[in-house]
């Protein structure tokens, strides 16, 4: 029987290194400790493991867990009269371990370093065929920056591109309850005693931690879904949470549909998308263009994503978009076609029922707004 570690840590001479990220909702959940714990297990199995950069932040348990693991001596960089330590990427590559541990992936390097961000150093190490295990807090993802600021009131300065998480070979969420994390904070296991009360009343408020925890779990769920779609493209509907797609048109009822779709998305704790399909042979009037722009603005107000597709086949365009974005709920209005047109050409709903057998369709009865 081949152990999983033997598969993951192959000879690094012919390939790019594997990247495993331990992600959590906030400092103190145990990402670094878990990374070190697993590193000891791998070392016991004969894997050549080194520490590239470790940030203990004075946590004794973390520092003790690192004992027995080889450390690649960091660079000493003088900045404004202060000597600071940064990871020595060249030394790691020269050492050629099978696995290197890199803490705090979103860290900004000291001015004067070869690269601005630590994740850029990690990419160099991976390109050299060395496997990397790293840690990351969810608030450091670029796409979540505005949302995290809205939740916590704190703008996170150190960020990484979402592609780093998307390209990772394995993502492990380190999860504890908000209550457990607050207890760790009170016990002095996260910050020094003089910072505990301030943290409890700011970033570590329970409602903040609940929201950040959900973000972390959702992000990993998305990662799993995308992997499933990539490995099995015929099995599209593997979504672990709902996604709502509202079909927009030039009719005034589109705004009503958007609001209804947003309510459905809120009730289902789902992501909201809006889609406008424009025919390639038709130009929108000024009024129609303003209407679509209004719909896009409203969609963004609901934290939704507005999509535009050019196609002569509206039903097929909706179906293709639903497959691409793993949509589980489609919202559209009643047909504006006459009975004669429906008889000869069929309805949009009938076509979508055939195309989207695994998707729930919501056909909303709407009335056009009366002009004043």
TrEMBL record:
SUPFAM superfamilies: Adenine nucleotide alpha hydrolases-like. GO terms for molecular function: kinase activity. Residues 15-224 form the Signal transduction histidine kinase osmosensitive K+ channel sensor N-terminal domain. Pfam families: KdpD. Coiled coil: none annotated. Gene3D superfamilies: HUPs, P-loop containing nucleotide triphosphate hydrolases. InterPro entries: Histidine_kinase_KdpD, P-loop_NTPase, Rossmann-like_a/b/a_fold, Sig_transdc_His_kinase_KdpD_N. Keywords: Kinase, Transferase, Two-component regulatory system. The keyword Transferase applies. PANTHER family: SENSOR PROTEIN KDPD. This is Sensor histidine kinase KdpD. It comes from Floridaenema aerugineum BLCC-F46.
